[in-house]
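One record is given unchanged without comment:
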Amino acid sequence: MVNRDQKLALIDRVVAGRASEMFTNFLRVLARHDRLGLLPLILAQCGFENEKRSGKKRVQVISAQELPAGTLDKIRDRLAALLAFPPVLETAVDRKLLGACAFAWETPFMMVRCGPG
């Protein structure tokens, strides 16, 4: 187990001088308060904030089976043309959909059929 002083020394040895002083101090504060384990959550929240500031919104794409990357690209492009914001796709599989896709975002739920026919 690495103790607090060792974590601070590691930050000073590895991060200081390579990152901004603000970021280095941020890591030191987290280390002093035994909160370095929160870094993955903080990074995720920063990503969400960046999306929000750039006008993007998350759209859930739920399909009966996993969709290939090319299909997801087509869905993303089509949704971008239809919606007033750039979509960031989150995918999930629900076998009960039986060949359909469901899309949801901050507006009311919308069901759209995917696939042939």
About this structure: The longest strand covers residues 57-63. Residues 39-53 form the longest helix (15 residues). Residues 55-112 form one domain.
